[in-house]
Specification:
The protein contains four helices and two strands, in the order E-E-H-H-H-H. The protein is mainly alpha-helical and about 100 residues long. The termini are far apart. It has a two-stranded antiparallel sheet.
Length: about 100
């Protein structure tokens, strides 16, 4: 990871800090896998789940150039969990139908 720019948080001015970073493909994959494992059964933690969704999207685009049905379902499930909902993936339903 290479930090391109960095602005620190300033509580006195009520300003959030931020960083612009450059990640390699391998770093994106690792970050995606870590966030997926950390959040796969989590509900209601909006900030962390939103980050996991953004990294999943980034990972799909960098690795494959777009989204497939598995990526879309994973993003939809994370979105539902960020709102505190439980959602059983349609990928599981598709597996049950093929049996």
């Amino acid at each position: 990871m290479r930090i391109h720019s960095l602005v620190h948080r300033d509580d006195a001015k009520n300003e959030n800090g931020f960083a612009v970073v450059i990640l390699t493909g391998e770093e994106i994959i690792s970050l995606n896998n870590l966030l997926y494992e950390a959040t796969k059964s989590m509900t209601g933690k909006r900030t962390l789940l939103e980050l996991a969704k953004e990294v999943k999207l980034l990972n799909a685009i960098v690795q494959h150039g777009g989204l497939d049905s598995f990526d879309i379902e994973t993003l939809a499930e994370a979105d539902a969990r960020s709102r505190g909902e439980k959602r059983e993936g349609c990928m599981k339903g598709a597996e049950d139908e093929s049996s």
